[in-house]
Known about the structure:
Elements: E1 15-16, E2 20-25, E3 37-45, E4 48-53, E5 62-68, E6 90-102, E7 106-113, H1 118-133
Antiparallel strand pairs: 1-3, 2-3, 2-5, 3-4, 4-7, 5-6, 6-7
Amino acid sequence: MSGDTGSEKRKYLRIESRIIVKCRRHTVTSSESREKIDAVAENISINGLLFRSERKYEIGDMLEIEIDFPEGECRPVFYEKEMPPYNAPIITSGTVVRVEFVAGGSFDIGVCLTEQNDEQWLRLFNYTYGKVES
Length: 134
């Protein structure tokens, strides 16, 4: 797991993660599909994530993001253990704040999450800080 390296000043803990995210631009050009693309998150925090994509985004692009957690790993805050697994993804929006070309023709895309409700924020909190405790 990676946390604050000392050279970065982050407000929230960021953990390494290999979860699937689906994303698309809020404003889609005529040459683009409305279809969401699948990508793999490299790391995640309460207010942002970094994912690898074959599609290049521009800094400032607004994205619709669906974070699809592994079964049972991101439960609602008041989840009862005897309830069935909770698999609902978090669907939110974010702004691209970093674009970096990586070998093989892919891009690392850093996104600041901008439109989370309280339940989404708490689920991300439970996921990231729960990974540190386990």
